[in-house]
Design brief:
By secondary structure, this protein is α+β, with helices and mostly antiparallel strands. It has one domain: 2-Layer Sandwich (D-amino Acid Aminotransferase, Chain A, domain 1). Helices cover about 35% and strands about 25% of the residues. Strands 7, 8, 9, 10, 11, 12, 13 and 14 form an eight-stranded antiparallel sheet that branches. The chain has a four-stranded antiparallel sheet with strand order 1-2-4-3, with helices on one face. The protein is globular, with a radius of gyration of 20 Å.
């Protein structure tokens, strides 16, 4: 199980063949890598499933290979395309996917054994990387702490105190299965990718970014950044996990965030002690070579008020309606949902 969706296996993958399974989306949410938070956002799961399916079908139409097979409106129901599900007036909450192998990644003293991962993986495996793309560099972006503008061909001596629009997307690679994500230089990313081509991963990330950016623009949304995950099978690479949703990517509308970032920032304002405790635990874990940073955190998040959860629900649902150009959910207009966020 992931923190926000349940993972089900119908036919397990083998050393040579893909299997079949599904993601069952829940209304749980996660911020700051905490995992499941103490409350839920109503209709969030159906929103993410709808938006993710829409994007996978968009990728397939544009000849980008993926692991997507369709959606279900109920467990054990027939596999449908998104249009069929929405025509039945039932937003999907389950996504059917092809499965690959996910070997164990051994860890000792904070060091991860990727050689062992690939020895078990063979030629059919989930690539243990996240491929991150950025169209904008926000004022809080980690890129500012890790790099200089000149590293990306930008004509600044230092990062300006404003959002930086990029003429071309920046692509980076980070770890996927480590307790704390690490950004990687190209040599280490190539080692962790195994047989999979880093150039092909970058090519797929840029293709996804381009298609999602264009789809967002049709809904008056700005696509700021996001990521993909991929599987390697029989010499080819497919886009996996879920792409282009308000949890995986950052979008904005008229300058206001329309993504999980809204909830992140709300916690920063209203529960700063917990956010600081999380940061301190992660730093301590890094210094001490401890993989499980949460075991070092002495605070837990408090539940959100119902009115805050309602505002978050409307933002997810209104954003999805706008993105897929349909009335999938009963929700205010995106403009009204954004106005409500600004009043939090």
């Amino acid at each position: 199980m992931t923190s926000v969706k349940e993972f089900r296996v119908d036919e397990p993958a083998t050393a040579t063949d893909l299997g079949r399974g599904s993601f069952a989306f829940t209304d749980d949410y996660s911020v700051f890598d905490w995992g499941k938070m103490p409350d839920e956002i109503p209709d969030k799961g159906a929103s993410l499933c709808t938006m993710g399916a829409y994007n996978f079908q968009l990728l397939e139409e544009n000849h980008v290979p993926t692991h997507y097979e369709g959606v279900r409106t109920e467990s054990d129901g027939p596999v449908l395309d998104l249009g069929e599900a929405l025509a039945a007036d039932s937003p999907p909450q389950e996504m059917v996917i092809s499965l690959t192998q996910v070997p164990n990644l051994p860890e000792a003293g904070g060091e991860y054994d990727y050689d062992a991962y690939h020895a078990e993986a063979g030629e059919n495996y989930l690539i243990p990387l996240e491929i991150v793309f950025r169209n904008r560099v926000g004022t809080g972006s980690s890129l500012r702490r890790r790099t200089d503008p000149a590293d990306h061909g930008l004509d600044f001596t230092e990062w300006p105190d404003r959002v930086v629009e990029l003429a071309e997307p920046i692509v980076e690679f980070s770890t996927k299965y480590e307790e704390q994500d690490r950004y990687l230089d190209r040599a280490e990313a190539e080692r962790i990718a195994g047989t999979a081509s880093l150039d092909r991963l970058e090519e797929l990330a840029l293709a996804v970014d381009h298609l999602v950016t264009d789809a967002a623009a049709e809904a008056d949304l700005v696509h700021e950044d996001g990521k993909i995950e991929c599987l390697y099978h029989d010499g080819g690479i497919r886009v996996a996990d879920v792409v282009g949703t308000f949890d995986e990517n950052r979008f904005s509308y008229d300058g206001q965030q329309v993504s999980k970032e809204v909830i992140r920032q709300y916690h920063k304002r209203t529960q700063p002690d917990w956010v600081e405790a999380v940061s301190a635990a992660k730093e301590r874990a890094t210094d001490e070579g401890v993989a499980d940073w949460k075991s070092l955190c002495d605070q837990s998040p408090a539940p959100l008020d119902d009115d805050v959860l309602g505002v978050a629900r409307d933002l997810y649902c209104a954003g999805t309606n706008a993105y897929v150009d349909g009335d999938v959910f009963g929700a205010p207009s995106l403009e009204a949902a954004v106005d409500a966020v600004q009043d939090l």
